[in-house]
Automatic annotation (TrEMBL):
CDD domains, per database record: RlmH-like
Catalytic activity: pseudouridine(1915) in 23S rRNA + S-adenosyl-L-methionine = N(3)-methylpseudouridine(1915) in 23S rRNA + S-adenosyl-L-homocysteine + H(+)
Binding-site positions, S-adenosyl-L-methionine: 73, 104, 123-128
Organism field: Kushneria marisflavi
The protein's name: Ribosomal RNA large subunit methyltransferase H
Length: 155
């Protein structure tokens, strides 16, 4: 099973890249995490943010295969505990599903991305900075895997 983090935004600070990479390299080959950064849509002072969201939606949707399970990270999604995440990851692995996890831009995800999503997951009711979401997501995926396999990290 492959996990693919599709994230709008490029040129992340070094701490983001280091944090994500730390957890990415800890995951086993059979549950690898690929990180795909996509350019944000054009945003000027007088521009309509809806146009940028549509452009970002096009970019995200173009990177999703029909066979992939899609999880949209969305503040209006359902919160999952780490044990619930771990159980979902086990189910995805048993089904042989590759999974795309969508992180939108500063104005959120395009409605077409939310419609394509099989699941909508809220990491927190708080508004989190997008760079932090990447690190948090990578860590939680690793933590979910450790819980699945009985690794002591989760203690």
């Amino acid at each position: 099973m492959k996990l693919k983090m599709l994230a709008v935004g490029t040129r992340m600070p070094g701490w983001v890249t280091q944090g994500v990479e730390e957890y990415r390299k800890r995951l086993p080959r059979e549950m690898s995490l690929e990180v795909v950064e996509l350019s944000p849509g054009p945003r000027q002072k007088s521009a309509d943010p809806a146009k940028a969201i549509r452009v970002e939606g096009d970019r995200l949707l173009s990177r999703i295969k029909d066979s992939e399970l899609v999880v949209a990270l969305d503040v209006e999604g359902k919160p999952w505990s780490t044990p619930v995440l771990s159980e979902r990851m086990r189910d995805w692995q048993m089904a042989g599903s590759d999974v795309s996890l969508l992180i939108g831009g500063p104005d959120g995800l395009d409605q077409r991305c939310l419609a394509r999503a099989d699941l909508r997951w809220s990491l927190s009711p708080l508004t989190l900075p997008h760079p932090l979401v990447r690190v948090l997501l990578a860590e939680q995926l690793y933590r979910g895997w450790t819980l699945m396999t009985g690794h002591p990290y989760h203690r």
